[in-house]
Amino acid sequence: MKILILETRKLSYNSSSVFLSEISDILRRHGVDVTHCIIDNPEKDSLLLESFIGQTFDAVFDINSILPLAECDYGKYPDCIDAPFINFIVDHPMHVHKYLDARLKRYYVICIDKYHKEYIDKYYPHIIKTAAIPLGGIKSDGADGSYAQFQKRQYGIFFPATYTPPSYYRQVMEESNAGYLKQAEQILHEILEGSDLPLHDIYKKINSWQDKRFAARMYKARFIDRYIRDYIRDEVVDTLLAEGFNLHVAGARWNMYNGSSKDRLVIHEECSYAELPVMMSKAKAVLNVQPLFTEAAHDRIFNAMLNGAAVITDTCSYIGKNYKDNMLFYNKSHLKESIGLLKDTLNNTQKLYNMASGLKAAACNETWEDRCRRIMEFVTDINR
Questions:
Q1: Backbone dihedral region for residue 189 (phi beyond 0: left; psi -120 to 50: alpha; all else: beta)
Q2: Which positions ≥6 away from 300 have C-beta within 8 Å?
């Protein structure tokens, strides 16, 4: 098998670079011939891209790629390479609409949530085949499994995430289209009332748009997703701190947090994604706030599992199916009450260790090794 990875994006904290490095290394260990190139700018790096024109590969691969819109003298770059082009979408498809909407001759997509797959299948019928494969976790070298070491972990609760005040996207929507803000509040109300529908299905429920233009309209309204994510994240952090817990955070803009219990927020220096597994190996518990995915779990859960930490999270169908007895769940609709119910466990190191140990034992199913096996199966399938 021969794979060309053309890395065109640097996502938050260089996460996409870490993912692609993991994929490259694992595929090579399995005997795959991998060429991995970083494309900072398709125009400036045109000579490098043009060197692959006419070459044959089993797949060209990228994460949230901008290549579907990049052109050379002979057409779009992916069409000038003799290979299927696989775009691995690691966010809701609405955020990369213009790249998914590009018409390529051999366009394939891997996404991380089965409802994202259904969305792409419905609204981008020119994409030949899709698959849902979640992101994998990464284990640090320092993830010791003993209770003695667990007791010495420095962080009670650790939350690796970016902070954006909900007021930011609220203002963005007010200035661009006040109707979006009204819709955002409607969708947020549905979510807090317990709806388990994907975001796009709730959005469709409150509008009367035709399918033909729906994906384009979702792209224009994408700040609704950001606003709701930030609102829920802010509320979860507010509640944990108000309930008396110290919360260690690492990520951008936490200095902007101004909640009433901010004295319990311990802000660490912003770090790269590659450093997060080590930080998680120093935590007794990792907080997760799901993005608005109703099926797939966020990768911080898998990183926490592999690094021996307990997990505090809201749920999704994947977590509910596989880990409902091994995680600490809060309810977005009843934050104070549900987090209050977790106090006994969160204040008991032995109980946290037992939960963390159970998750770590199951984490072999949530590695990049597993994800690469599934990626190779997908590549084999589309080349039949």
A1: alpha
A2: 160, 161, 276, 286, 288
What is the pLDDT at residue 143?
Answer: 72
pLDDT attached to residue 208:
75
Long-range contact set of residues 25-32: C-beta below 8 Å, sequence gap at least 24: 26/368, 26/369, 26/372, 27/1, 27/3, 27/372, 27/375, 27/376, 30/372, 30/376, 31/1, 32/1, 32/2, 32/3, 32/376
Number of H helices, E strands in the chain: 17, 14
Q: Is the pTM of this model over 0.85?
A: yes
Three-state DSSP at 34 gives strand
295 and 251 in a common domain: yes
Domain residues for 180?
147-366
Q: Which run of H or of E encompasses 38? A: strand 33-38
Are 128 and 194 members of one domain?
no
Count of structural domains, the chain: 2
Q: What is the pLDDT of residue 269?
A: 94
Average pLDDT value over all residues in the chain? 97
